Description:
The complex is a heterodimer.
Chain A: E1 9-12, E2 18-23, E3 34-39, E4 46-49, E5 63-68, E6 71-76, E7 85-93, E8 98-101, E9 105-109
Parallel strand pairs in A: 1-9
Antiparallel strand pairs in A: 2-6, 3-4, 3-7, 5-6, 7-8, 7-9
Chain B: E1 3-7, E2 10-12, E3 18-25, E4 34-39, E5 45-51, E6 58-60, E7 68-73, E8 78-83, E9 92-99, E10 108-111, E11 115-119
Amino acid sequence: QSVLTQPPSASGTPGQRVTISCSGSGSNIGSNTVNWYQQLPGTAPKLLIYSSNQRPSGVPDRFSGSKSGTSASLAISGLQSEDEADYYCAAWDDSLKGVVFGGGTRLTVL
Amino acid sequence: EVQLLESGGGLVQPGGSLRLSCAASGFNFNNHAMTWVRQAPGKGLEWLSGISGSGGSTYYADSVKGRFTISRDTSENTLYLRMNSLRAEDTAIYYCAKAIDGYSYGNLDFWGQGTLVTVSS
């Protein structure tokens, strides 16, 4: 059971906008920023969003992040087939004194 | 170009030990916190441990506290993870990852390709 809760799956058709949620508590998302990672099949994870809503250079602006209270969301607009991947949220937890990940969401592009 | 190259994985018996290494290049190693994250077969990501850029602060997940030790050698630009008392549930791909600064253990902007650890008799 992960400390951060994500839906196990999400789906959309090309061109659609999809959102993936990440729910935590006051000691993690409520107190710290959220990072999102994309893991394509058979590859290492890649930083997609940091500090809740910042994109590293090279990440398309189709990807955006937001945070409110103890929840965060990743939005992907203009969905493309290459977006099919697993997505993870992560945040520092002040009580655990460590980083906690969500269980991951598998995105399927129909 | 940033490079992280993990090594040291392999097959080990339950109760055994292993030391993973992560050779870093292409950035100022001293200025960045480093972490270890693992992924069991077919499962999600699990953060294991982080060490500050200076090496003065270390943090561990409860699942490995007391069994695993993170360290770094700034002269060799290498990150280590010493793993003792290994269990079957430690079987996973182990990734080292670079933080964006000296203390943001969850902001991991570059990952190695991982090294597989299998704990089995």
